[in-house]
Structures are given as structure tokens and as C-alpha cells.
Design goal:
With 333 residues, this protein is an alpha+beta fold. It has twelve helices and 16 strands. It has a domain of 83 residues: Winged helix-like DNA-binding domain superfamily/Winged helix DNA-binding domain (Arc Repressor Mutant, subunit A, Orthogonal Bundle). Helix content is 39%, strand content 24%. A hairpin with a 4-residue loop joins strand 1 and strand 2.
């Protein structure tokens, strides 16, 4: 194996702090990763890493070597990206991360269109309703809903999702149809809770330019989007998801919209990737395609909410590795 590939493996170990994770991401045996690092240390003449049973850390020399190697690899990646973008037909494999609800409602139903348009691009979709680090997961981009904090990463807004308050016909027959926000006090919700903090997210409505938060009582609470919607279909309470997620259920009558004339905050949909100058032709094609999907969907091309959304529901950001995203319920992602 050449020195350049050894450097790639070293930088990945430095970023993941784990030999096994690096081996998994780079699809090679753990022992091979360890031997390559040992050989590299022999070639440079200093110890680059300290090992423990749980974690790998950089030595002082390793930190300096990592920073220099990272710059070399970034320059090489930029050149390769520029050469790739010269191609008339985008090609390669793109690794996309997202949540279950976005995958189920947005990506997978339309993916055959992308594959027909770009026959030389393969797509790998990783689904996780949790914090994701692009570097550690080996991803080219991540699709997320909600406000994103400033970071060294690049976020491209591809759409704004409308929210909808809805419930099943069975529920509404039992409890009646609320006609005002105040009427919600006598109703039951399927509540959404943060998988990380256990915090319950309230319903939100725009009223007189402000966002009104309403906490509904409920006997059922979930921390995953698909289960959240299914609970409402079964009549367990009112929910407030992104409308594109439940559009088919609203059309079929399995769910009915409540407060159709009320103004409800929107949720930004973004694609996040490491460096704008290093985007491959395949990643750029995928990003443009997702943007087009959103533009053609009325539920995803809404005007953004002018009022900043409350941190209790849409603005609490969690930084993990090189990726930060909002701690959102799957009502909106």
C-alpha cells in the first residue's frame, strides 16, 4: 500500500479516534488498519498515536502530522473534484445520511427518477434518527430538517416544510373537532419527545406575529417519526407533522386536517456537506435533484417563517464531531 493511502487511513483514525470504526468505514480488517499505522510510524520515525482499550489519541507529533496531512488531502480532493466536474456525465457513488421520515416520505419515493436521470451514479442511503457526524460515518452529505448552527460545514437550503395539525376521523368522532387553540385543552395528543433529552415538544402556531406554544395532554409519547404518524392514524391523538410526510394519508382520508386556515411555522430542509469546493459531481447532482423535488412540492416550497422558532422545539442545536443539527422531533424531520 502506498504512502498516500496510508495517510488517508491515518487521518481517518485521527478523526474517528477508533481503529474499528475506521476499518468499518474504509471496508478493511481492523488488523490491517493497525499494521498500516505502525508502518507509517516507522517511516516517519515518531509515534503518532497513543492506544487504549477504548480510544485512540494523537500525540503532539501526531497532531502536527495530522494537520499537515489534512491540508494535503484537501488539496488533492479539490483537484480531483475539479477534474470530476469537468465530466459531462456525473458518476460515482454518493453516500447520503438522513432520518427515517425524510427517507420514507421524500427520498425513496422519488429515487427511481434520480437513478434514471443519472445512470452512472450509485446511491447509498443511511437512515438514523440521531446525531450524525459526516466524517465518522463516511458520508458525502446529510439531509436534515430544522435550523442549523454556523459551522465549518456548508448547508444548502433546499426547501421549507409546511406543518399541519391533524388527527384520524376515529379520534375526531370521539372527541370532536377543535375550532380554536383554546379548544385543544380538552383534547389528547400523541406527543413527541426528544430521544436525547426526553423533553416533550409542544405544538406551535403563529398568532399576531408570535409563536404560541401549546402543550397537550396525552397518554402516548414517541421519539421516532413513523411511529408518531402511525399512532395518530390509529386514533391515539392529535399530531403536528410536516405536511409532506402525511400528504397521502390526508388525501386518502386516514388523517384529517385541523385548523386548515391557521398559520403554522415552517421548517427549513437543508443538505449539509463538508466543503463547497470539494463537492463531487455526483453530490452536486443529488443536491440539485433534491432541490427540484422540493420546488415542485407545494408542501416543501412554502415561504420560510419570519419569526424565529423557539429553542424548545426547533432551535436547540447539538454538535457532534463535525456536524451540528437541530434537536428536532420527527414531526418536522
Amino acid at each position: 500500500m502506498g504512502r498516500l493511502e496510508a495517510i488517508r487511513i491515518f487521518t481517518r483514525v485521527a478523526e474517528t479516534r477508533n481503529f474499528s470504526k475506521t476499518a468499518e468505514v474504509m471496508d478493511m480488517p481492523r488488523g490491517t488498519v493497525s499494521r498500516i499505522i505502525q508502518t507509517l510510524e516507522g517511516q516517519v520515525g515518531v509515534r503518532l498515536l497513543t492506544r487504549s482499550t477504548r480510544q485512540v489519541n494523537l500525540t503532539d507529533a501526531g497532531k502536527m502530522y495530522y494537520e499537515r496531512c489534512k491540508k494535503i488531502l484537501e488539496e488533492l480532493s479539490m483537484v480531483e473534484s475539479e477534474l470530476s466536474n469537468i465530466k459531462s456525465v456525473p458518476s460515482g457513488t454518493i453516500r447520503v445520511g438522513t432520518t427515517g421520515t425524510i427517507a420514507e416520505a421524500l427520498v425513496m419515493p422519488n429515487l427511481d427518477e434520480f437513478l434514471r436521470e443519472f445512470p452512472d451514479i450509485d446511491v447509498r442511503v443511511g437512515i438514523a434518527d440521531r446525531n450524525i457526524c459526516l466524517v465518522q460515518e463516511g458520508l458525502d452529505c446529510v439531509i436534515r430538517a430544522g435550523a442549523l448552527e454556523e459551522s465549518s460545514l456548508v448547508a444548502r437550503r433546499v426547501g421549507n416544510a409546511r406543518l399541519v395539525t391533524c388527527a384520524s376521523p376515529t379520534y375526531l368522532e370521539k372527541y370532536g373537532v377543535p375550532e380554536s387553540i383554546e379548544d385543544l385543552e380538552s383534547h389528547v395528543a400523541v406527543n413527541y419527545i426528544s430521544a436525547k433529552s426526553g423533553k416533550l415538544f409542544p405544538f406551535e402556531f403563529e398568532r399576531d406575529g408570535e409563536i404560541a406554544k401549546v402543550e397537550l395532554r396525552g397518554r402516548v409519547a414517541v421519539d421516532e417519526g413513523i411511529a408518531y404518524v402511525n399512532a395518530a392514524v390509529r386514533g391515539l391523538g392529535i399530531i403536528q407533522p410536516s405536511r409532506y410526510i402525511v400528504a397521502d394519508l390526508l388525501q386518502s382520508g386516514q388523517l384529517r386536517e385541523i385548523f386548515p386556515t391557521f398559520r403554522i411555522p415552517t421548517i427549513p430542509i437543508s443538505i449539509v456537506y463538508p466543503h463547497r469546493s470539494h463537492i463531487s459531481s455526483a453530490t452536486r447532482a443529488f443536491t440539485n435533484w433534491i432541490t427540484g423535488i422540493c420546488v415542485r412540492n407545494d408542501d416543501l416550497s412554502a415561504q420560510p417563517t419570519q419569526q424565529t422558532r423557539s429553542t424548545s422545539r426547533g432551535g436547540a442545536l447539538v454538535a457532534v464531531g463535525d456536524f451540528a443539527h437541530s434537536e428536532q422531533h420527527s414531526k418536522i424531520d
